[in-house]
Amino acid sequence: MESILDIRNLSIAFSNKNIDNTVVDGASLQLRAGEVLGIVGESGCGKTTLSRSILGLLPPTGKIMEGELIFEGKNLLHLSKEEKRKIRGREIGMIFQDSMTSLNPVRKIGRQFIETLSSRLKIDKENARKLAEEMLVKVNLSRPEKIMNQYSFQLSGGMRQRVMIAMALALRPKVLIADEPTTALDVTVQAQILKEIQDLKESYGTSIILVSHNLGVVYQIADTIAVMYAGSVVEYGEASTVFRNPVHPYTKALLGSIPNLSHQQDKLVSIEGSPPLSHRLPSGCVFHPRCQFSNEVCRLKKPRPTETAEGVRVACHRQNNTRYIEGEEDIA
Ligand SMILES: Nc1ncnc2c1ncn2[C@@H]1O[C@H](COP(=O)(O)OP(=O)(O)OP(=O)(O)O)[C@@H](O)[C@H]1O
């Protein structure tokens, strides 16, 4: 199946005092129509930076150093501001952890919601109101008329987040980027919202990128999964295959650290050490200082992703059977 969004060899850096720190390094991922791609990894591995870059929402110090972002055949990096604005929300929607800050504090929720829906979906105000109220109920806000009549400061953080989720879902984008959408919400509401996200996929064929540090959530709804470590995608493939048979030592440790998902180990595995800081990335394989299998090749050479017999892309010398040859040119 053809991909709706193709992330090709994407590298992103933040500059600090004229030094570029690479925080996403050569990521390549494909999102196919109607599928959920889960991106997982420890805090700071680059998940948010990668997902924000898709809509050109990097902070001012962040820049794309290399790569392409192809959406329905068009490179998003070559679009004008106006073209990007048209795509944002309607074609590619997003829900971020801090999306509650995007509500306008001096306008009632209803007015904002209705204006967004009527201008983006080209529907009249009455239909926009109905749709808005319907969506508020779907995200578990049971008295929509009351909420429509309130200002954002009158709502709790969790309610504001749900309003933003309702708005993003109501626009029925072709692609939805959801970055830790439910982290701040309680478990019952989380389940409700994940169900809504899944329904969106099933009813409208929406393709979804779900960024999460919660492997349980990704396990429930992702079709494919990308595991990131220190800016690199270390393993990427069908979620069921990766969960059943993780190959990269980091993925194994990550999955092994969750008891009810652990099919490989009987006991909890904790990964010793902590991820490297972006301005102090190790040479060779970024995971080698924490990897129990690392050897000289891993210390010197960055592994290239290769495909396993099960079609999973893994960046690990052990998997590739790479040997260090003295004098070889591409040693990092
Ligand atoms: N505005 C910024 N300026 C400089 N560095 C940044 C900025 N935002 C993020 N970074 C750095 O980029 C790297 C990746 O951060 P990012 O937020 O993308 O990771 P993440 O995996 O989404 O983490 P989390 O789960 O905590 O959100 C980190 O090293 C972080 O410190």
Automatic annotation (TrEMBL):
<dbReference type="GO" id="GO:0016887">
    <property type="term" value="F:ATP hydrolysis activity"/>
</dbReference>
<protein>
    <submittedName>
        <fullName>Oligopeptide transport ATP-binding protein OppD</fullName>
    </submittedName>
</protein>
<keyword id="KW-0067">ATP-binding</keyword>
<keyword id="KW-0472">Membrane</keyword>
<keyword id="KW-0547">Nucleotide-binding</keyword>
<dbReference type="InterPro" id="IPR003439">
    <property type="entry name" value="ABC_transporter-like_ATP-bd"/>
</dbReference>
<dbReference type="GO" id="GO:0005886">
    <property type="term" value="C:plasma membrane"/>
</dbReference>
<dbReference type="GO" id="GO:0005524">
    <property type="term" value="F:ATP binding"/>
</dbReference>
<dbReference type="InterPro" id="IPR017871">
    <property type="entry name" value="ABC_transporter-like_CS"/>
</dbReference>
<keyword id="KW-0813">Transport</keyword>
<dbReference type="Pfam" id="PF08352">
    <property type="entry name" value="oligo_HPY"/>
</dbReference>
<dbReference type="InterPro" id="IPR003593">
    <property type="entry name" value="AAA+_ATPase"/>
</dbReference>
<comment type="similarity">
    <text>Belongs to the ABC transporter superfamily.</text>
</comment>
<keyword id="KW-1003">Cell membrane</keyword>
<dbReference type="GO" id="GO:0015833">
    <property type="term" value="P:peptide transport"/>
</dbReference>
<dbReference type="InterPro" id="IPR013563">
    <property type="entry name" value="Oligopep_ABC_C"/>
</dbReference>
<dbReference type="InterPro" id="IPR027417">
    <property type="entry name" value="P-loop_NTPase"/>
</dbReference>
<dbReference type="Pfam" id="PF00005">
    <property type="entry name" value="ABC_tran"/>
</dbReference>
<feature type="domain" description="ABC transporter">
    <location>
        <begin position="7"/>
        <end position="255"/>
    </location>
</feature>
<dbReference type="InterPro" id="IPR050388">
    <property type="entry name" value="ABC_Ni/Peptide_Import"/>
</dbReference>
